[in-house]
Amino acid sequence: MKPGIHPQYREVVFQDVTAHFAFLTRSTVATKETIRWEDGKEYPLYKLEISSASHPFYTGKHKVIDAGGRVDKFRKRYAAGGKS
To answer: Are the CB atoms for 72 and 66 separated by under 8 Å?
Structure first.
């Protein structure tokens, strides 16, 4: 690999601001803020709007759409109009 052309790969804290959830992982994302983590060390901070802690699919609040009913409605609505 050529030196000087790759982004810095380091430990970063990702924080979900809506669910007050944070996790430490490695990333190349650029950040300006820092946070003191549970181990007492200071890490770069990247704020997220949504994560697995706040996403409806992962929290169990996901609404299942009745796709079969919607398809039937579509077919009924356009069945008569398509034969003209």
So the answer is: no
Domain of 78 in residue numbering reads as: 10-83
Please report, in tens digits, the pLDDT of each residue of the chain (84 residues total): 688 898 889 999 999 888 888 999 999 999 999 999 999 999 999 998 877 777 666 566 656 666 667 777 888 888 766 554
Q: Give how many domains the chain has, as a whole number.
A: 1
pTM: 0.63
Residues 40-69 as b/e (b if ≥16 CB within 10 A, e otherwise) read eeebbbbebeebeebeeeeeeeeeeeeeee
